[in-house]
Structure formats: structure tokens, C-alpha cells
Amino acid sequence: MRKLYRTLAGKLALIQTTFLVVALASIAFTLWVSWQLEGGAGAINEAGRMRMLTYKLTLMHQAGEHIEVAQGVASFDAMVLSLRRGDPSRPLFIPDNQTSLDRFKEVERAWLPLRGKLLEPTEGPALRSQADQFVNTVDAFVSAIENAIATRTALLGGLCFGLVVLVAAASVVFVSGTFVWIIQPLQRLRDGLKQMAARDFSLRIDESNTVEEFSSLALGFNAMADALEGSYRGLEHKVAEKTADLARQNERLAALYDVALMAVQSQPSTQDLAQEFAAKICRISGADAAAVRLAAEDGERLLMLGHHRLPASMVEAEACVRRGDCACGEHLETVAGARIIPIRALGQRKLKHCEAAGYQTVVAIPMRTPNRTVGEVELFFYGERTISEEERHLLDALAGQVATQLDNLRLASRMREMAVSEERNLMAQELHDSIAQSLAFLKIQVQLLRRGIKEGHSQEVEASLAEIDAGVKESYADVRELLLHFRTRPDQEDIAHALRSTLSKFELQSGLSTQLTMAGQGVPLPPDQQVQVLHVLQEALSNVRKHAGASSVELRVTQSPQWRFEVRDDGAGFDALAGRFDETHVGLHIMRERAQRIGATLQVSSQAGQGTQISLTLPPQGRSSAPDISLVADVAPDPGLAARSV
């Protein structure tokens, strides 16, 4: 039980229970006193009726109203009986003090002789005198009741005042207990937390609290303060270490980002890239000088591609270093990661140029891509130098980054070279299939012309001159057509403008009418695909001019669900199944090669006397398809329908 009273819940329960019991008792006593007062007030009222009825009966007796007197006496008897027994429902009862009870007995005794005289004929003056005496007895009874009520009213007032005092005392006890048992311990805990927030862990809270809960909290707070004080002693050192580590990590990321942006921002040459990287890695590593060497194709030489702060004599002497002449590049293919080369410890195989320049340590970092070894980066230090594991990883990452950029520049250069070579091959094919054949024909006609002049055959001379004139005109037309094709450039957003320009130039050159029809809405073609599409269409129009004998040409373009280009003419056409494709339509080989470049499908549909249709269908955007070329012979042409595809 004593332990229960030490708890906060026990103390509050004790205070509240005591206050509740006292309050309930006071309220019950107050209700009882109030009830007693109401009963006394009812008795006073009843006594007042008795006085009035006494005078009334006296007057009625003097008037000779004996029947009414008898009824009044019976009513008076009922009043006396009611006072004797009491009536809780009204309420009506005589106060239980002795004086009031004695006075009521006197009233009962005085009523009996008066009752007898009221029921018998009696002289008026004697009855009136006796009635006055009885009323005085009733007044004494009323005074006794009033005195009892006054006493109990004073008691009720004192009780109400006591309740007020009790409420005030209970409030004071509750407030003071709350302050002592709850607020003060909480304030001490709050002050302790503030000191902890200010990194002061020296405060300890008194654990001998009269409230068990706060005593447990103080014990836990002190244990927490001890633990925090012990942990905080080494926390600042750990934070400093982590901050320095984050700074190093940020420096590494910044260095990698800086190196990664070299080839993106300015798109330099390999020499410029190597020169810039040498300066950056020299600054990042804190080296005294740096060199970037490129491995030659034969794998036996290292070429100086870039350098920073190297002596001019050393740059000139080591512009090309053979592997094995010094420690540089010695283990380029076998050793992974950066390696440290102490110059003085090399003995006879030491780096003579490095020693002459005053360097004592060289850090060699291979530049590798997943596919090949690009070269080596060398960092030169005047003093002895070691590198940590983090520095090794950073140097390897930087060297790998620049190796990838150098290799990308090399691959981009080769791709440009291959693109130029392929375009030259196509130009050579076009020249061969047009101007070269015409020149060969002209050469034959010149030989025939010479023979005709020598033999004096005027008809053969005229015929040869006519053929030579036609051949020269044809060659001139071919040259102009090639120049027009080479000058036509696609729009990066919309190919329609380039198509209209091509058809307009074709009309001026051939005199044929053209029509362009475009349907659907599709994603714009990339510029590289637009170039190949234009060349295919230009070659198709060239074949129409040379071989079709048509009067009009129609170009239909469908953009969805995939791009499709159709060139239709109303010329003579040809029999695709007769095997004359290679003989009369050699330009289709060029169209096929260009279609293969963009993964498109080239289809040729023709029949003798029914014109020719050439269709170029591109794969859906984002998907490639196998290139194909098909020749279709229309056995039963169906005018009004679109060209068939195989």
C-alpha cells in the first residue's frame, strides 16, 4: 500500500477519493438539512392554519352554526394527526428537537378542552378567552419550530461555507501537488534536455523523487546522459573524418565529371584532348609533371600524345619510346591499375631522362577500354611518392575515362572515313553507270568516225557524228543530273520540301509533268534516312528519264503506319521475268545498296506497256527490318489499285 502511494497515480487517486467522499457527505447532509427545513416550514404553515381555524370555529360557535363547527373540529383533528404522524410527500413534519416536540404536546393537551367546549353550547366570552389561550399555545409551538429552523439554517450556511473551504483547499492541494509532483520534475527534465541540445551532458537529475514514475524517468535520463556523454566524446572526431571523406568523394566526382566533359564540350582532336587531360590529371594528383602516351598499332612503341610541365628536352627525347627501353609501358598489357616506379631503385634500367630532369618517382597508369589498350598516363614527382587505394581507384577511373574518349575519337574518325569511302563508291558507281558508259560509247563512235573518214564512207561519218552528238548530249544531261542530286539537301524536320525540290528539278531537266501526293501523319525521318531516301528516289526518276519513255510521273508518299515512297510512271515498262533487269536497269543496284543502309525494302513492279512502279518501304520507327528487293511482273494489271508489293 505504501508503494502504491509513492506512485503518481496513487497520490492522485488518494486526493480525488478523499475529496469525493467529503463532497458526497457534505452534499448528503445539505440535502437532509434542506429537507428538514422544508418539513419545518410545512409544520409552521399547518400551525398557521390551526390558528385561523380556531378563530373561525369560535365565530361559527357564537353564530350557532353547530354543524359547520362539528365539521371544522373534525378537520382540526386531522391537522393534529397530520402533525403527529408527519407527511414526507409534502414534506410536513415537526423538527425532531425536544422543544418543538414539547410545544406540540402542549398544543394537543390544550386542544382537547377547547374541542369539548366547541362541541357543547357555551357562553361566548368564556369560549373566546379559552380560544385566545389556545392560539398562544400554538404561537409558542410555531416559535419553537422557527427557532429549530433558524438553527438548522445557520447550520446549512456553515455547511455551504465549509464546502467552499473544502473546494478551495482541495484546489490548493491539487495545484500544489501537481506543481510539486509533476511540473517541477518535468521542468527539471526540460532543462536537462535543453542542456543536452546545447551539447552539455554534465547535468544529472536527482533520482530521490517522491513520485516513483519521475524517479524512474530521472534514472533513465541520467543513464541516457552518461551514454551520450560517452558517445559524444569521439563524435566530433568521427564527424570530421566523415566530412573529410565526403570532401574527397566530392573531389573525385568533380574530377571524373570534369574529365568526362572534355570531349563533349569542345570536341577536340586527340592531341588537344590528351594535352588537356595531362593538365587536369597533373592538377588532380598533385604531380609535378604528366605525360599521355598513345600505344602504336604495332604494340611496340609509345607515342607522346600530350604532356604538361615536362622539360622540352625530355619531350623531344621521348616523343617515341620503344617498349622495353625503359620501365614505361613495360607491363602495360599485364599489370592492372596504377603502378609506382621508383627511379633510383631501377639500377641499370632506370629512366635516364627522368633522372636527368630530377624526378624520383613515376606513377604509370594504363589507359584501357573493354576492347583494347589505348596507351599509358605517366605522373612525374620530384620526391618519393606513394598512392593510397582511393587515389589508385581515382587515377584508374580517370585514365579509363580518357581512354574511352580517345578510342571514341578514333572510332568516330574511322566512321567518317568509312562514310566518305562508301559515298565515293556510290558516286563511282553512278559515274560508271552513266557518264563512263556514255564515254565508252563515244570512244567507239570516234573509232568508227576515224575509219569512215579514212575509208571515205560519208554515210558512216554522218552516222558516227550523229551518235557522238547524241552521246555528248546524254553525258551532259547525266552530269547536270548528278550535280542537281548532290545539291539537294533534306530538311531535318520535314522531307516534303526536299521532295518538291527534287520533282521541280526533274521537270526542268526532263520536261515531264510530275505530281506529289502525301497521306497520313508520321514521325519525321532522321536526317541520315532522308538522305538515302532522296538518293533512291532521284535514281528512280533518272531511270524514268533514261528508259521509260513516259509522259508523266507520280510520287506517292504514305507516312503511317510506316513510311512508304512510290514512283509511278506511264512509260513503256519492261518484262521483269524476261531477265532484262540487269541489262537495262543497272541503276537499281545503286538503289538497292542505299535501301540496305537504312534497312528498307525496295520493290519494283513492271509490265511491258503498262509503266513501272518502284516502292521503297521503311521499317517502323524504332524497329529495323531485313532489306529486300523484289521484281514483280503484273500478269493482269488492275488499274485504280495501288501498286502491289512482294
From TrEMBL:
Intracellular or extracellular location(s): Cell inner membrane
TM spans (from-to): 12-35, 155-183
Record field: catalytic activity: ATP + protein L-histidine = ADP + protein N-phospho-L-histidine
Membrane topology label: Multi-pass membrane protein
Keyword Transit peptide: no
The keyword Cell inner membrane is assigned to this record: yes
Histidine kinase domain ranges (all copies): 430-622
Listed EC numbers: 2.7.13.3
Source species, domain of life: Bacteria
Sorted UniProt keywords: ATP-binding, Cell inner membrane, Cell membrane, Kinase, Membrane, Nucleotide-binding, Phosphoprotein, Transferase, Transmembrane, Transmembrane helix, Two-component regulatory system
PROSITE patterns per UniProt: HAMP, HIS_KIN
Alphabetized CDD domains for the sequence: HAMP (cd06225), HATPase_UhpB-NarQ-NarX-like (cd16917)
Protein name according to UniProt: Sensor protein
